[in-house]
Amino acid sequence: MRYPALLLLSGVMLFAADKKILLIAGAPSHGPGHHEHHAGVRLLEKCLAGTAGLKTEVFNNVWPTESALASATAIVIYSDGGAKHPALQEDRLAQLDRVLARGTGLGLLHYATEPTLEKGQKEFLRWVGAAFEIHWSVNPHWDANFNTLPAHPITRGVKPFTLRDEWYFHLRFPEARRGLTPILSAVPDASTMSRPDGHHSGNPAARAAVARGEPQTVAWAYERAGGGRGFGTTGGHYHSNWAQEDFRRLVLNALLWIAKLEVPASGFHSTVTPADLAANLDPKPLPKAKSADVKKK
């Protein structure tokens, strides 16, 4: 049995207060097996269950109350981004700003790394140290080869791996990059620039970076000046990728890290079964089959 961390004060043994991670799932999006926000956060919740000193709470397509936000040690958002980003609605940026100013951690998964230029970008750069920016960043599907990993609590127990995902890259970072640690970086191949220029598909600056063979950061850790921590990864498009042990371990390590819990020396161990992956999927219609050509009589 696992027990919460203990404090010894004046010879009296006391249980330390649990830390809490809020897992916020955005609305259903894309087709079956893609952007499975609710199933994804439920899977992370299941993996973290029983961790000493930690509680989790899931909010599925609903925003937490201010009191719930205030109770959190870390907040994780897995959702669509852009104008539909749940954090950009109403006065939620101001709510988050108040909470994060106290040192609360923030994690953003996949599309949730994209605010808008008009709303959220300056906050995301300040809170997590990076953001997807339209007409600058790109969102191709490609096989990223992570053959080297930095020494960081988030990479404990994670082995080099290759994984196909919609890895957004050529992100926008603060100019100084102070407090930022790239966690996953890979060199995109030429196929990532096969689409014409567009707000997500390509632009001259991204094309030039790929032509130069520049490694692109697709997961990162950030230590804010005020003491809070941030984490982002642009992976997470395919629900099946949660079965990849190294990717899953890296994200779970990151959730512990932003909550200021000790990451085990060998990383956070978890097991995911096919039944786990099939649980909590959003009811999404299957893509319409293309009608066959009908021969003229």
What does this structure look like?
The chain has helices at residues 37-48, 66-70, 92-100, 121-127, 204-211, 245-258, 274-278, and strands at 6-9, 12-15, 19-25, 54-60, 74-78, 105-109, 142-146, 161-165, 180-186, 216-223, 229-233. The protein has 297 residues and is α/β, with parallel strands linked by helices. The chain has a domain at 17-133 and 172-185 and 216-278: 3-Layer(aba) Sandwich (Rossmann fold), CATH 3.40.50. The strands form 3 sheets. A 7-stranded mixed β-sheet has the order 4-3-5-6-11-10-9, with helices on one face. A two-stranded antiparallel sheet has the order 1-2. The radius of gyration is 20 Å and the shape is globular. The model is unreliable at 1-15 and 291-297 (pLDDT under 50).
Total helix count?
Answer: 7
* Oligomeric state of this protein: single chain
Which stretches are low in confidence, meaning pLDDT under 50 for 5 or more residues running?
1-15, 291-297
Mean pLDDT: 92
Supply the CATH superfamily name of one domain: Class I glutamine amidotransferase (GATase) domain
Radius of gyration: 20 Å
**Apparent shape:** globular
Name of the top-level CATH class of one domain: Alpha Beta
- Sheet-strand content, in percent, reads 15-25%
The tally of beta strands, per DSSP, is: 11
How do the SSEs run, as a string of H and E? EEEHEHEHEHEEEHEEHH
- The CATH architecture classification of one domain is 3-Layer(aba) Sandwich
**Strand order, biggest sheet?**
4-3-5-6-11-10-9
Structural class: alpha/beta
Using the coordinates shown, work out and report the CATH topology of one domain.
Rossmann fold
Report the span from N to C terminus: 73 Å
The biggest sheet, with number of strands, parallel, antiparallel or mixed sense and barrel status, is:
7 strands, mixed
Helix content: 10-25%
